[in-house]
Amino acid sequence: MKTFLSFSLISFVLLTSCIEEYWPELNKYENNLVVDGSITDKPGPYTIRLSVSSTFDAPVFKPFSNCEVIINDDAGNSEILTETEAGIYKTKENGIQGEVGRKYKLIIKTADGKLYESQLEELMEAEKIESVYGEIESRQDENYPYDLTGYQFYVNTETASKDSSYFLWRLEATYQYQSDYTIRWYYDGELKWFHGPDSLYNCYSTYYINNFYSMSTVGLTSPKIEAYALNYVNTETRQLSVKYSLLVKQYTLNRKAFLFWDVLREQNASSTSLFTTQPYQLKGNIYNVDNPEEPVLGYFLVAGLDEKRIFVDRPKYPVEFHYSVCTLSERDFESYAERIYADPVFYPLYAIETNGGRRAIPPKGCTDCREHGGTITKPDFWEE
């Protein structure tokens, strides 16, 4: 997410106008401050991420540390955020709380004396999510010899309180997946029974979805958004193999903030070449107090927030999955026989038993679900 945002905020300088070749001065947008953070009407802590923009051809998250970061409101309340890790600044658990109708701004003081501020923006009342749902859909992809199948997720809003309402959706996904084999023994110099054979079988993985989504009710006959398409998850990975959960965060924005995110969304969704559009510098709400012409990338989001989480189960037959699974080879059976010669650096070795009674030590990714990046700790919100 951090790398994606930095990359996106460099690339948004190229927006649609007319199609012709153009070579922009991309170095103008290198080594600039990048700001990503928000305050909402939900309790904190709130997070502000500061980084420095990298080169366009090799985007990477470069944290901006040792800054004094402050959130102020128009009633004289303020809080200095704590840098919890490089470039990540957070308010306290019981710190400043966003309130509808109040205005907020962000202040950043760098170690070399530069002062950045955001413009004061009013926190809008959150419009509500009516429903989030997923439908099994298939689609074609030139990179695959068959149609991809998976869940397409949609959101419906409740009827908004204003005819002109502006929305931004950001998503967080969590999925459960399993190892291909259950552990029966482990070897750490001695062969021992593995207590709790299911303990490394189920894992959970959480990630932020890089894409963001925006839409307004301007021009609609009713201020209600229905069947707005969010992310699509196919069966090429283990994400849908057991259970999948999507957390939808719906931000109610002011018009200026909406225009920023909507243009950025359009740029990221464009399938055309980077050099097919004329340049246009999209400015956020943050500026250098002493040098307003300095490019500053990003936006301090002040918005009402509503959230909804849903769960979907593994798609049923005839939906097919195409992720790779482990199959035992003769080498795996030999590994069990030769376990006493294994280098201790690889301990513990996990052994399984086939239905025919043969024992094998397959690669750890086949038996320990954590090898695929997840954790065995079930999230508090998880539903069975």
Describe this structure in words.
It is a single chain. The chain is mainly β. It folds into two domains: 2-124 and 254-304, no CATH class; 129-228 and 316-372, no CATH class. 9% of the residues lie in helices and 37% in strands. The chain has helices spanning 2-11, 255-269, 330-337, and strands at 33-40, 47-52, 62-63, 68-73, 78-80, 82-85, 88-90, 103-109, 115-118, 121-122, 129-139, 148-157, 166-178, 185-187, 191-193, 202-208, 213-216, 228-234, 243-253, 286-288, 297-313, 349-353, 359-360. Strands 1, 2, 3, 6, 7, 13, 16, 17, 19 and 21 form a ten-stranded mixed β-sheet that branches. Strands 4, 5, 8, 9, 10 and 20 form a six-stranded antiparallel β-sheet that branches. A hairpin with an 8-residue loop joins strand 11 and strand 12 (148-157). The longest helix is centred in the C-terminal third of the chain and has 15 residues, at 255-269. The radius of gyration is 25 Å and the shape is globular. Mean pLDDT is 89; it is low at 6-24 and 271-280.
